[in-house]
Amino acid sequence: MISADDLIALVHNYNPRSNTQLIRSAYAYAERMHSGQTRQSGEPYFTHPVAVAAILTEQQLDDATIVTALLHDTIEDTKSTYQEIAATFGDEVAHLVDGVTKLTNLQLSSSETKQAENFRKLFIAMSKDLRVILVKLSDRLHNMRTIRAMRPEKQVQKARETMDIYAPLAGRMGMQWMREELEDLAFRVLQPEGRASIIRRFINLQKETGDVIHRITSDMRHELEKADIDAEVFGRAKKPYSIWRKMQEKEMGFSRLSDIYGFRVITRSEEDCYAALGAIHQRWRAVPGRFKDYISQPKSNGYRSIHTTVSGRDGKRVEVQIRTRQMHEVAETGVAAHWAYRDGQRAENPFAVDPARWITSLSEQFDAEEDHDEFLEAVKLEMYSDQVFCFTPKGEVVKLPKGATPLDFGYAIHTRIGAACVGAKVDGIRVPLWTRLKNGQSVEIITAEGQTPQTSWLEIATTGKAKTAIRRSLREAGRERYIKLGRELARSAFAGMGKTATPKALEKAAEILRLPDSETLLARLGSAELSARDVVRALYPDLRPKETGTVDQSHAVIGLDRAQGFTRAPCCQPLPGERIVGIARRGRGVIVHAIDCAALAEVENEPARWIDLHWASGNHPPVYTVTLDLTIGNDAGVLGRICTLIGERSANISDLNFMDRKPDFYRLLMDIDLRDAEHLHMVVSALDAEDDVATVERRRDPGLAGQAEAAE
């Protein structure tokens, strides 16, 4: 275990003016609090917080962060309290320790809803003080380094959580070294055989080709010296997980991969970066499409570097990153560079990003009122994506995730421009809205007055900001329609309980469900974000549905105007109990389809014709015809037994059509009148259990979709 003197020496290496007494006091306090506690490995528990503090010294962080690392488990795992830490070590440290404690209690890999809520808390903690996340990431790194002491199932859980959340977060913060180590440690647990295989292949490759890294490094140094450029060159093989991921993405074996080596050139000045690039390109051939200039277009976390991939005489590709020493410091520590110390002074690195500005840029599009799954999608889109840089017609730079479209570009400029988008020009050429943008392209958004976001845009947009704005706009546009439908659903559901959906009752239900008002409740009810059953149960949790009479066929479907009639689509023959949607036919009523009907593909680009519908709750009469496709044995009395079987389940056979007759079997289409989906399931289950029934399927034929129109 690292002693107090050794830890203080590590801090003194970069901050001779550190508060030695504060660190020594925190060391002694934490050691006393954790006395008697052990880790899974049997080691004293205190070895863990000391190791976390040592990891943070590698990032040259301030005294408050080092002290927080030593104390980060005291509130949670010992008798220590927030008040005691604040009194002993000050409010700043107490706030940081409390923040880490709250993060430790977040179960980030739980269910989608819980995960989204915890991500919100994560971003709130980050926005208060990013050092909380730096301590938590270092805490996770040490836990992953010592994960072998955990139970196998716990190892898998922690490794998956690390791969899904902590490694991408470290990468998004610019701490690439930490991201790579976290990924590799998690990879060791999740894919031990895959990792071992890649390492074995590396060893074999070295035996065959010799020390490639040393040879290329020497060649690069020679070329830079010839060009009179003062620079350091470092080379390394890429991490096993990075290679494995590339193998999966490109669907190729290890032997076919080329750029498995990476090199860094650290220069004295920005001018030397471009001079070094020229020297390298003169000696080795550049690979087209693999050049990125993050010096002139830095990433939002402050990362600056020139990336290029070159090909040698043997055809092997190598990736080269070129940057200055100051750029390299930010590239290694990312957003953490803001707190770094050197020689007792806060390091003045012009490329370090203000953490408050960074976290604002990351979370500004996460609307607190968004659904959990939408919020989670937006977070992951922003955390897991690389960036492209495009230009407005005026030459301003717009940063977007890789794979972004002109629609994302429009929303990135302003929500109003994105919403009014009708087309786009890329480098002066008109392109479809789903075009994927590339680095350096100039994009012009064409707008039109009166244009509003379309449902299909959700499939085109890739950024969280654009998707959130489109959903909000669609929700607002359909709000009145959803409120109207929600009111009908509420009326029907309350009536099923023998109650009335009065304005006061709806307001109370909204209050219980933590919604701002009854209109929001009705809108969510109408858009299927909330079920009518949940609304009723909020007010009457112990009340059972009362027995209701038969539903009137003229009111069987909720969501239509009083004057509107409806026809069940013959292609899918929807039944009460199934999710449905209406397709309006100009002047000829509404055709009701099952929500998964294949025939709906023909009208997917006509959202204005779609009507949200629901079946009324209650007992429906057995008048809804469904066609069954049956194959039965050709024996005396078989058809009679089947008809009896159906009749015993209160279903009426309204038509029978023999499709094929063979010596040993018949295939026939049978029309049966049913009450609802449950009634159908009862009949099909009975037929399926009959020995003489070879197959029974519900017929669904998209080709019959036109019959409803012809019949009107």
CATH superfamily membership of the largest domain: Hypothetical protein af1432
Beta-strand content estimate: 15-25%
Mean pLDDT: 81
Unreliably modeled segments: none
Give a structural overview.
By secondary structure, this protein is α+β, with helices and mostly antiparallel strands. The chain folds into five domains: 4-190, Orthogonal Bundle (Hypothetical protein af1432), CATH 1.10.3210.10; 206-346, Beta Polymerase, domain 2 (2-Layer Sandwich), CATH 3.30.460; 472-539, no CATH class; 553-615, no CATH class; 624-709, ACT domain (Alpha-Beta Plaits), CATH 3.30.70. The strands form six sheets. Strands 1, 2, 3, 4, 5 and 6 form a six-stranded mixed sheet that branches. It is globular, with a radius of gyration of 33 Å. Residues 45-144 form the HD domain. Belongs to the relA/spoT family.
